[in-house]
Amino acid sequence: MSRSVFKSLHRQPLVLGGERELVQFSALLAFIVGAGGQTFLSVTSAFCFWCVALFCLRQMAKIDPMLSQVFRRHVKQQAVYPARSTPWAR
Question: What residues does each domain of the chain span?
Fold first, then answer.
């Protein structure tokens, strides 16, 4: 008897096609720039920034839906791990 894994059980939570945290952060940043400047130029530049950021985040999510989390974990890891089991081993 074969059992299948449903996609909905292991699908990543994406918003507008990108990672949730990054999309929300870019929208917040665009809102701050647009509302902070209160000029046509600042609103236009904020909208353009958000469109470009959303496009890039969608492309990143197509490659890997957890790309930023994988990158953060990669940066945390050490370059070299010494060849010993524990510091308390004799």
Answer: 14-63
Beta pairing class for 14-15 and 18-19: antiparallel
- Structure tokens, 83: 């060849």
Instruction: Name the nearest CA neighbour of 63 among 8, 10, 21, 12.
Output: 12
pLDDT at residue number 90: 63
**The tokens of 21 are what?**
């945290």
Helices (H), the chain: 7-10, 20-37, 40-63, 67-76
pTM for the full model?
0.74
As a whole number of angstroms, the distance between CA 17 and CA 23 comes to: 9
